[in-house]
Design goal:
Helix content is about 45%, strand content about 10%. It is α/β, with parallel strands linked by helices and about 375 residues long.
Length: about 375
Amino acid sequence: MRDGSRPAEAEALSPPSLGRRVLLAPITVTPSKPLTPSHLKGLLWTDVMYRATAQLADVTYRYSPTTYHRTEQTLGFWEYLDRTVGDADYSGLSEERIGEMYVGFRTEGRRADAAALRPYADAVELHGWVHPASARVLELWAAHYKQLGMHDPGLLAHQPPGLGLEEVVDRLGSLGMCLDLRSYGGPVFLDATRHGLPLRQIVDAQSRPNYLACALRELVPLAPQFDEIVLLYDRELEPDYLLLERTLSAFGATVRRVTLGRVPIDGQIRSARHGDWHGHTAAALLGGAAAEYDEEVLRLGMRLYFIAVLGPGQQQSFGHDVLRQSLTRAARLLSGGRDTDPAPLPEVMARHRGDHLYVNPYRLTSSLLAKRRPAPTHGLLTAVYL
């Protein structure tokens, strides 16, 4: 020991100063369909990461549907609804019914021209407008968040990005990371070729941004404000998130990427755009579990399953029986939880931090299921899982 101080191993577990700032920026889900097991997995991972890391650092959870309404995917769906359904009342529709309309939009395969989408883009950009169908989906999702005890980062709030499209293009250009060909009738590319990464189009010739351009509008102005930015995303988007990491690093950020595999259904990874969600939506899963288990068991059991059991990969298919086992295990953990722990909660969280500021949800949650370990305390469960 050194001058009466704690042993070195204890110092290694000491939490960092709460003055350190962490930004969690998970991929957003387009409000056009029901939440599926893959969506739930990402949302529950982010929620546990947010609540656990908040014991160690000042954490901002940035999840802004507003930012991504400008994508052609969303605006095109809204234009499709108004063109094919008309002035409808969506207030009583389910996610599944709106999702079926979204499948119809994707099946039609028609790409609306820039002129048709411009009024929608202007309404979003200038007035924070949201189509009634997506507003209804977000309202239903907010109810799921509440039932699961998840932090709501502002699903129903107007949260515009900090930069306009032209502003972010200018900032990229100042770093030599932008190839803007619009004056020649072409698109805008993110250029990280000097880092060995390919050119990536972010704006088309009609100045319509894609998802990556929207992410840059949101995250570039935030980059210098945080000690660590954590990006959580689907494995299929790895190329774009490598580019996003490189770009934010150029603006001074320390970036951590957390890649999650989707949840197979019957051994297959299915996109929600095809409508293969029946019987596996958040509403169906929560409704079935709530009929048998109380609220705390549901919240903990869902996290045990989607984080610890399924893990970060995508090898294991969704299983109703295994989910039920996790809910049963949650009931046992809650009934056997300890009142106190000799170690303070921040120190417990720090054990699952690694060489970064954020707490690893998989390591933390798996520890709850480890054999021959004492049951978790009620304080830990309440702070992070319930």
